[in-house]
Amino acid sequence: LLTLPKERGWFVSHIYNYQGFWAIPRVIQGVIACQQQFQAQDSDIILVTTPKSGTTWLKSLLFVLVNRMKYPVIEQNHPLLVKNPHDLIPFLEIRLYVDGLVPNFASFTSPRLLSTHLPFASLPKSVQDSKTKLVYLCRNPKDTFISMWHFINNLRLHHKDIHPIEEKFESFCKGVSPYGPFWNHVLDYWKQSIEKPNKVLFLMYEEIKVQPKLQLKRLAEFLECPFSIEEENCGVIDEILRMCSFENLSNLEVNTNGKLSTEELENKAFFRKGEIGDWKNYFTTEMSEKLNYVIEQKFQGSGLRFSYI
Ligand code: A3P
Questions:
Q1: SS (H, E, C) the chain
Q2: 78 classed as catalytic
Q3: Transmembrane region positions (predicted)?
Q4: Of 155, 272, 282, which is best to mutate to test ligand 1, by the most ligand atoms within 8 angstroms of its C-beta?
Q5: Which of 106, 188, 231, 244 would bridge 236 by S-S if both were Cys, CB 3.0 to 4.6 A apart?
């Protein structure tokens, strides 16, 4: 690790560049372990996200959608009501393979639901070579940045040291952020989703917010578990969306008072505002113009556009 390029920390220690993306040493160790050991199966479904893009929300939707026959949405003791979504769909590199753990997949039923923040090029080889499906989620970079800034300040509260927003913003614009550069991450999966539409589904937080039914149906079709006419008529889609809504999830006992089963992190850290456009409450005009410029440079010609409303 000492030979890797490093920058001042985004979390609690310095952040290093490994295979072209930035992460803290503990994460890099997990990444290496999972790259070396994880064996993907064709039936696996892996949710890939940029940090703070709505991972928790999509984990909930994915879990409820895929398991809707096993756990009907109306069940009082549905797992989503008693467990945090990160306990239901664990991260490969920051949960299953963290700290030298050797994960036991015996308790996973097929299809295995897993998640990661890894850039495409750094995915374990077996993921790329198998028929494993990848569901990708990103969010407009301004809200992503603000959500991340709040998140790390939350982690830092124990250290009583708030990160100046200007400093973190400059790093973000330089591409230095957890799993960043943000644009490399998004663009790589965007290209893959165009080249291999059966392997990679590209979703955006804002699109799910604005057209939740349509996006959930897209997800179900991509995963080859589309809603039947009867399900549509019985309001199953609405029920799933209601169950996974910010309001419902953030008010559950497990998410107001619980902690992740393997970490010190409080579950409530994953629920803040859940809106589009909170960046406007923090960005100066200069910051907004600067990031617009960077985004325009990086994404030009890609056909990809973010919504910032
Ligand atoms: P904000 O900080 O903007 O509120 P991640 O899950 O990738 O860590 O992303 C966290 C962001 O998703 C937070 O955004 C959080 O509030 C939001 N979020 C969590 N659950 C949500 C839900 N059910 N619906 C919409 N947004 C949600």
A1: CCCCCEECCCCCCCEEEECCEEECHHHHHHHHHHHHHCCCCCCCEEEEECCCCCHHHHHHHHHHHHCCCCCCCCCCCCHHHHCCHHHHCCEHHHHHCHHHCCCCHHHCCCCCEEEECCCHHHCCHHHHHCCCEEEEEECCHHHHHHHHHHHHHHHHHHHCCCCCHHHHHHHHHHCCCECCCHHHHHHHHHHHHHHCCCCEEEEEHHHHHHCHHHHHHHHHHHCCCCCCHHHHHCCHHHHHHHHCCHHHHHCCHHHHHCECCCCCCEHHHHCCCCCCCHHHHCCCHHHHHHHHHHHHHHHCCCCCCCCCC
A2: no
A3: none
A4: 272
A5: 231
ipTM over 0.95: yes
pLDDT digits (tens, 9 = 90+) for 248-270: 999 999 999 998 776 668 899 99
Distance 209 CA to ligand 1 centre (A): 11
